[in-house]
Write a structure and sequence with these properties.
The protein contains 6 helices and 4 strands. By secondary structure, the chain is mainly α.
Length: 151
């Protein structure tokens, strides 16, 4: 997951174990032991993905895949008030493009399915992805942002 460094980090940084894909061919075990790395909280990482999905000038299908997968496996809820608050604060940072959920954006994403997403996913992951469901989730978050802003 890529993360913008324009916005301040809003939740405490977590230290979680990371490991490489490097395997010892003789022992058939990890060649490098897991080591701690600083990372965004899960909630803040998904707020970053939502910010990108909503406001990236040139939409990227992987943002929508990551969000759809995160909701499907229960990593985050698009209805989480704290997530919405973080997202609102991130979108308020100067330099973000306006929210765009146009039909044109959806069509651009559809064109990226076979060319950009399928080559990097396992077939079983590609089958579970539904661009309409993902776009609907992101649209629901945008509607919630706009509704709460009017209050």
């Amino acid at each position: 997951m890529e993360v913008s460094v324009r916005e301040p980090i809003l939740e405490p940084v977590e230290r979680l174990p990371a490991r490489t894909l490097l395997m010892d061919p003789f022992r058939r075990s990890w060649a490098v032991a897991p080591f701690p790395v600083a990372c965004l909280s899960c909630r803040e990482a998904y707020a970053e993905k939502l910010r990108a999905a909503l406001s990236r000038r040139d939409p990227v299908i992987r943002d929508f895949f990551d969000l759809d997968h995160g909701v499907r496996v229960g990593r985050f809820s698009p209805d989480d008030p704290a997530l919405i608050d973080i997202l609102r604060r991130k979108l308020a940072v100067a330099g973000n493009d306006p929210i765009d959920l146009s039909d044109g954006k959806l069509q651009t994403l559809r064109m990226q399915l076979d060319a950009e997403l399928a080559p990097v996913l396992r077939p079983q992951d590609m089958v579970t992805f539904d661009i309409d469901r993902a776009f609907s989730t992101v649209s629901r978050v945008a509607a919630r942002l706009l509704t709460e802003d009017r209050r």
